[in-house]
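Final paragraph of the annual report: two paired records, presented back to back.
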Amino acid sequence: PAKMCIITLDQRYTRKLPSEFSSLMVKFSSKNPQDRLALISAGINNRALDYQNPPFLQDAGITVSTYPISVTGHVLPTPRIHY
């Protein structure tokens, strides 16, 4: 259960990710942002998944918003490469 998990500061997962997860992650991340947001929103709003009320999330103090957050960002300049 989530309440039994302990994550220390700066904890990393150093093992190789299984290939099926890697391919799913690449497939999902290659979608355009609007399609990706629609998939995430459909999952969050899916009543069968019940992200709003599961006891294990409440016990862990985790809440899931059904609305995406909006942040201000900017494009960083391209780094110079020295050979």
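The closing record of the year follows.
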Amino acid sequence: MAKKGGTNHIKSLAAPEFFNISRKEETYVARPLPGRHNLYSVAPLEDSIKKLGYSDNYSDAAKVIKSGKIKVNGKTIKEKKFPIGLNDVISIGKANYLVSIDKFGHISFNETKAPEHFIYKVVGKDKFKGNKIRVRLNSGTVIDAGENAGKINPGDSVKIDSNNKIIEVIKMKKGAKCTVVSGVHVATSGSIEDIKPGNIHTGKVVIIKDDKGEIFETLEKNIITMS
């Protein structure tokens, strides 16, 4: 049993809330491969396939994935532990599912049309070979900023295609539409009313009016701009 509790699996009692694991029914859950998103906002692909109803157990989910019928963000994935996180799109045949988060902080899936683009938050920006600018996204992906280098700052979002080419920069600014992905108001959507400086420990504070017209504050790090 010690082997199962090692690096390949996580005890369900210790699994992040995002996994939304039944701790009574599952003793262990596969640990997602590193590299995309982070452990607290990611789930293994096999678990997502099971939750979507395409298998009754993890063994069958692994077979479905191995068959090459699953795409993530337009690319065929055959690794059962492939990390799935916010704003990824899982495609199975003609069905497409946008990965979201519910009000309890759990992974959720919303059926959507065939993906043409994907939106991720910029969490870092630096220079690399040839004085070029690259940005690091909340998905863990690092991409060349290209001609958008001067427009992008950490906190903004980018709309990218399946080849990681930037289609649009979505600024973190007053009037932007956003979704809360962490904190007390998780899964709430609205528009940014104002952005306050905050401090070195918390970062910027954002004032948001939700879709019901209610006003609340949250930290900038808790939201992602969507349009």
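Helices lie at 45-51, 58-66. This concludes the annual technical report; the extension proposal builds directly on these records.
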